[in-house]
TrEMBL record:
Tree of life domain: Bacteria
Organism for this UniProt entry: Knoellia remsis
Alphabetized PANTHER family for the sequence: PROTEIN ABCI7, CHLOROPLASTIC
Region (Disordered): 1-27
Annotated protein name in UniProt: Fe-S cluster assembly protein SufD
GO BP term (any one): iron-sulfur cluster assembly
Length: 402
């Protein structure tokens, strides 16, 4: 029998309506399919959509959305030697191992894209510079995309996928990592405040491979990302990390599903978010499934939210579903709260003004995640962007060159 563990209530300015809710089905039973007809248009009453303002997303998930023609998305790239970016068919993406869509947004994105971009990192390549892909929006028309990243056996690389400009964009990002490879994928969302972005980000972890998926969301009117991790063999390690900062009127939603099916694999999830301004809204849902065959699993998930002003709201729902007792460990934690007045007092008592003190506290809050990206210029950019968020200034898009 599986053990379903919903989030318990915690103090702070957040809701926890999921505390008394037990999911109506195992994550193992949820639909995955390339057929649009298998995913009805959501109403907002479904468990996986109940936090999302679906009434504002009709252009991306409504009936017939997948038949919309045209796109105002430009793809730009900076590729180290040996790395290639080519156009492929959806059938070829499936042959490469791209997981099937798991919700209405993803299946419409694949159908609407009509193909995929394939980023290939050769086997045994060790890249000293990150691969950079920029997805640049140029208007408010619906657009769809599918990016497939393959990292060959024993390769080592970092891939940064930057989303910027104005767009209504729905995407699937499929990452297939070969045995023994070490890959970091950093999707950065710095859209304008009137943009919509839906994404399914899949990671397939090869045998003894190490993968980090680091989501950074600082812009967009509505951003909803689903990150899913599976294991192709034993010994794999997955880290799902995230940083998000929501201002007034923004809805930022991050959902994770780690599916432990192979034995002796590890996962660690850590997401941190800050909210300021009336109607700022964030949602974090973390699901971990440990199947009966996944003996020796070691997993932990953590979500922390920092409420900076009145009127902001954070929902945090971690879940564990465990089908075997033969594991190394499994746990989760969630906390939402306001500024620590003692921290502010300590800093101000040493001559630091209040605005600077607040900025130092927030930078310290995010540093443990940002510091794991491993690309100094990107880490510096994100810390500067967080400072601008605190000051109420527009975030300048990430523009770095090799």
């Amino acid at each position: 029998m599986s053990l379903l563990t919903p989030q318990r209530p915690s103090a702070g300015a957040h809701t926890d309506s999921a505390a008394a809710f037990v999911p109506d089905q195992s994550r193992a039973e949820r639909t995955t399919s390339y057929a649009v007809a298998d995913f009805p248009v959501p109403t907002g009453r479904e468990e996986e959509w109940r936090f999302t303002p679906v009434d504002r997303l009709h252009s991306l998930i409504g009936a017939g959305a997948e038949t919309i023609g045209g796109s105002e998305i430009a793809w730009e790239s900076e590729l180290p030697a040996g790395v290639t970016l080519t156009e492929i068919t959806t059938e070829r993406a499936r042959e490469l191992g791209a997981p099937a869509p798991a919700d209405r947004a993803a299946v419409v994105a694949v159908a609407g894209a009509g193909g995929a971009m394939h980023l290939d990192i050769p086997a045994e390549a060790e890249l000293s510079e990150p691969v950079r892909i920029t997805v640049r929006g140029g208007g408010a028309q619906p657009a769809f995309g599918h990016l497939v990243v393959t990292a060959g056996r024993f390769s080592k690389a970092t891939v940064v996928v930057q989303h910027t400009g104005t767009a209504q964009f729905s995407e699937v990002l499929s990452t297939i990592v070969g045995d023994g490879a070490n890959l970091t994928v950093v999707p950065v969302q710095e859209w304008t405040d009137d943009s919509l972005h839906l994404g399914q980000h899949d990671v397939v972890v090869g045998r003894d491979a190490t993968v980090r998926h680091i989501a950074v969301t600082l812009g967009g009117g509505i951003v909803r990302l689903n990150a899913n991790a599976t294991y192709a063999g034993p010994g794999g390690s997955f880290e799902g990390l995230g940083v998000y900062f929501a201002d007034a009127g923004q809805h930022q939603e991050h959902r994770l599903f780690v599916d432990h099916e192979a034995p002796h694999c590890r996962s660690n999830v850590e997401y941190k978010g800050a909210l300021q301004g009336e109607t700022a809204r964030t949602v974090w849902v973390g699901d971990v499934l440990i199947r009966a065959a996944a003996e020796g699993t070691d997993t932990y998930e953590l979500n922390r939210n920092l409420i900076l002003t009145d009127g902001a709201r954070a929902d945090s729902v971690p879940n564990l579903e465990i089908e075997t007792g033969e594991i190394e460990g499994a746990g989760h934690a969630s906390a939402t709260g306001r500024f620590d007045d003692q921290q502010l007092f300590y800093l101000q008592a040493r001559g630091i003004d209040e605005d600077t003190a607040r900025r130092l506290v927030v930078r310290g809050f995010f540093a443990s995640v940002v510091g794991r990206i491993g690309v100094p210029e990107i880490e510096e950019h994100l810390m500067a962007a967080i400072d601008r968020e605190l000051e109420g200034q527009p975030v300048e898009p990430l523009e770095v060159t090799a």
